[in-house]
Amino acid sequence: MDLDLLFAPEELQFRDEVRELVRWVPRKLLLDMDADTVMFPREFLEEAGRRGVLGPRFDPAYGGRGLAWTGEIAALEELGALGTSLACLWSLVSIVGEAIHVFGTEEQKQRFLVPALRGELALAEALTEPRGGSDFFAATTTARREGDVFVLNGQKRFVVGAEGADVLLVYGRVEGIEDPKAAMTAFLVERGPGVEVHHVYGLMGTRGGGTGRLVFRDAPVPVENVLGGEGGVGNGTAVFHQMMIPERLTSAGAAVGMGRAAMEIAVRYADRRHAFGRKIRRFEGVSFKIAESVTRMDASRALNVAAARAVDAGEDPGKVRRLVSEAKKLSTETAWEVVNHAMQILGGIGYTNIYPVEKLLRDTRLITIWTGTNEIMNLVIQHELYRELAAAAPAGRDVEADAPGAANLEEKVYNEPE
């Protein structure tokens, strides 16, 4: 299950540093988060910042490591063992940081990115709205300009990290621009007047990550907090498309770690638990589940790395969208399947809190939904594949011509419209 050959030495070194952070996390913190007695674990971000393991892809001038995406993928697998909440909070520095690093002004990078990488500033992304889930451009949050200030009104929900966030990346439509794509703008909203945070969710899992609803009531946002400065008005669509890369790749990377954690528990259990006079690992019903799980996790890990390398290489944006969507879909569905296999192997005891498999089951159920449901991933994958095939001749052999009757063109009827 450990494919170190996929990563460079410096990436493995960074992974090991993150592995030490994961070992440091207090057991009590995890239990308190799942019990909803800790709403936002700021100490985790502070410790990660002290260790210098936040935002590894960003320029060292701002406190990053200058690593490739593959290095972050290696680290995310380790973080996945902590479940979705802490892995997501760690990833939010990468996700929101991506927007600031790519689109932000130098002043915004110094004000927001630098302290975030030190673990001194908590970030969150406010994207989903009550009336618009997967339909991003149905957003109704508005921004009205009044001199050097934009006034925000609207709501966002399911915002991980909202409880403790100091700065929120908020998407809103600037009034006076009819085209919703041209009106969409990204704002860096600091916690303050007009920004309300409501903790209203009884979450099935992914607890303790500060998930909440945001309400903006005439929230004033200075023009200099438009992402990209005043010239960034209308940049929200470009920011959104860029952000789908870190959102989905971080989900994919951590998903493998969640599956791995559950399967390691199941493998150890199957090698100790006896039934009918022998270890249960000797039964095909158990051993085949383990084999299937390991195979799917290795395939997911390899696809994650391939997608990461496509991003790092600056491949065609459509191809990147397809590979990133494939990685998110395969890894999250694999994690869900693997955790279910683990629970089945443990049997009744797996359905209790004696083992953490039940928590992993609750956590992994979400990851096939967030950052774009896997049904949306299917739409993206097939759309980009059709686009790629329509744009170029087959890269290899055109096997259609190898059929015995290939020359009978009159038999190839497509009923195309006139």
Descriptive overview:
With 418 residues, the protein is of the alpha+beta class. It folds into 3 domains: 4-121, Butyryl-Coa Dehydrogenase, subunit A, domain 1; 126-236, Butyryl-CoA Dehydrogenase, subunit A, domain 2, CATH 2.40.110; 238-391, Butyryl-CoA Dehydrogenase, subunit A, domain 3 (Up-down Bundle). It has helices at residues 9-24, 27-34, 42-51, 69-80, 84-103, 106-117, 180-183, 236-270, 284-312, 317-346, 357-367, 374-391; strands spanning 123-126, 142-146, 149-159, 167-174, 184-190, 195-198, 212-222, 274-275, 278-279. The radius of gyration is 23 Å and the shape is globular. It starts with 8 loop residues before the first helix and ends in a 27-residue tail after the last helix.
Shape: globular
Round the mean pLDDT to the nearest integer and report it.
94
CATH fold descriptor of the largest domain: Butyryl-CoA Dehydrogenase, subunit A, domain 3
CATH domain class name of the largest domain: Mainly Alpha
Helix content: 40-55%
Strand content: 5-15%
Q: How many beta-strand runs?
A: 9
The secondary-structure class comes to alpha+beta
The gist of it:
The chain is an alpha+beta fold. The protein is 49% helix and 13% strand. The protein has three domains: 118 residues, Acyl-CoA dehydrogenase/oxidase, N-terminal domain (Butyryl-Coa Dehydrogenase, subunit A, domain 1, Orthogonal Bundle); 111 residues, Beta Barrel (Butyryl-CoA Dehydrogenase, subunit A, domain 2), CATH 2.40.110; 154 residues, Butyryl-CoA Dehydrogenase, subunit A, domain 3 (Up-down Bundle).
